[in-house]
Amino acid sequence: xxxxxxxxxxxxxxxxxxxxxxxxMVAMLIFIAAGIYTLTFCFFFGYxxxxxxxxxxxxxxxxxxxxxxxxxxxxVGVSVWFGAFYIQDEDLGEEPEDNRYD
Amino acid sequence: xxxxxAGSSSIFTFFIYLILIFGLAILSxxxxxxxxxxxxxxxxxxxxxxxxxxxxxxxxxxxxxSLTGFPALIYEYGWILALWISGYxxxxxxxxxxxxxxxxxxxxxxxxxxxxxxxxxxxxxxxLGVLIAVTLALFITVYMVxxxxxxxxxxxxxLQDHPLFQSISATMPDLWASSxxxxxxxxxxxxxxxxxxxxxxRAVVWTDVLQGFVMLAGVLLLLFFTxxxxxxxxxxxxxxxxxxxxVAAEGNNNSQYNLVxxxxxxxxxxxxxxxxxxxxxxxxxxxxxxxxxxxTLVRLMAFKSTQVYRRAIWMVSIYYSLIYLSLLIIFVCxxxxxxxxxxxxxxxxxxxxxxxxxxxxxxxxxxxxxxxMSTVDSFLLMISSSLVRDIYQRTVNPKASERTIRLAxxxxxxxxxxxxxxxxxxxxxxxxxxxxxxxxxxxCCFLAPVTLSLYWKRSTTTGMIVAVLGGMITTVVLxxxxxxxxxxxxxxxxxxxxxxxxxxxxxxxxxxxGSLLSAPPPESLVxxxxxxxxxxxxxxxxxxxx
Lengths: 102, 546
Known about the structure:
The structure holds 2 protein chains of 2 kinds. Helix content of chain A is 56%, strand content 7%. Chain A is mainly alpha-helical. Chain B is mainly alpha-helical. In chain B, strands 1-2 form a two-stranded antiparallel sheet. Mean pLDDT of chain B is 84; it is low at 539-546. β1 of chain A pairs antiparallel with β3 of chain B.
């Protein structure tokens, strides 16, 4: 039977499309969460402060450590989870053999 | 200037590096002989593995700006650059995670090799394909002129004191620039054009892997020696805290800024270097514009399996954290080690000479060279693919033989490279601003069409054309407004927001509205890209009663 002869109710949404969309939305949520934390923390603890009152941790201003360094390390961990465990493996298919253009 | 021993080390490293690059190009050419030409030359036969995908993405994204412009900004403005660059923490997740699996699947369904190819097939619209190809070629050409000049300048720093270089340079006329610069530019562009033309996508990707490792090794070496030389980060931060920058605010008192807290001082801007509104813009700018870069999208069409893609996400994430956090610490320390640099753009080579033993200097000086080379080779191939594949092969002469396409591809890559080299002999000023302009334009033109075409069934050709034109016109207009008021190339931040965000907003709105106002796409097209049979077709075919 040819694909084009199938009726409308014989199709369903492509699972790869649905899962890709879900994974993209999770990626966007991670981005938004990281942005809210980093920008809020840095604005409240790293802006308009007298230089002599800036506290340091390992010689780095503490607002940099906790506002940028800490979330960065957390996001590296989240990336490992996202890449290694969250994204599902799929068979993405083969290219059409009769590619008329080459 | 580089001292004699560092100069010898640099030249030695430079030539080893070139030999490796040409070796990889020769290996790639052997692959080209045995595979379908267009698929192999422009996409490496869709066979990128984990290391190649991760490193080619990371190296192509990190242009010369990462190892020249960014260090200069850290040197000038201090710790606030941590927030300026912080959006890079999510760049791998966004740039690879948003589209990776889906774009690769759609490209496989259609056999698409380039980005214009993909969108043309997705909407069955030759007009859209040609519009995307022309837009892409225009913005990338502008981008490449700036990168070629940066490459020429680095080769000049590397080689200008060598007697052989000086003797050849002495025989050359001064064209628009000094003969030293012209000779260095010819050397740089000659290398890039040769190996890209000869080896195609696979050569570009393999050299990207090498270049990615050179960059990482260079940055980590520099971090190690800088921390040894600086006397400790605590004293560096205390030194920076003592530096006050006075900025004349409009019409009244001066504002005092410093190098250890926000917003950081910028003498040309009364609001400081990074007011919080601009910090928000940059946090969005890096990942979102990165996701829309054609160089990234093409690489996502080229990986061979989802296992490869999944591993690449966390590998790039670790790679970026090592590179960018190290650069931040190194060039904050540079302020103490080299307290009065007249030209901050030279802080990278100056630090290499100041803190690293001469025998290792060559690796450090090769790092920014590698960063630039890994970007321009990819972009050179993208312009070539736009012209040969999307305009010549698919529009002008669909029946062209493989031999004709092969010759056209080699010739186009070489000719485009030569034209960009000639333009870089006398490039306009404001190079970093040109790079940002071109990146903004590319993202504003392509991010919305790619997102909508992959994830929205109702998207139409009309909507995508409106999205491309809307993004392009917004970018060009906001830069033109700035040109009108200041006479320079730079963004006009309407309501304090960067043109990239305005361009993306207009492009997405245009894509939505244009699609909804035009006729829905044919059911068969939507079904092809978004649906599968409830019963797999293979089993239907296998069942004679079906």
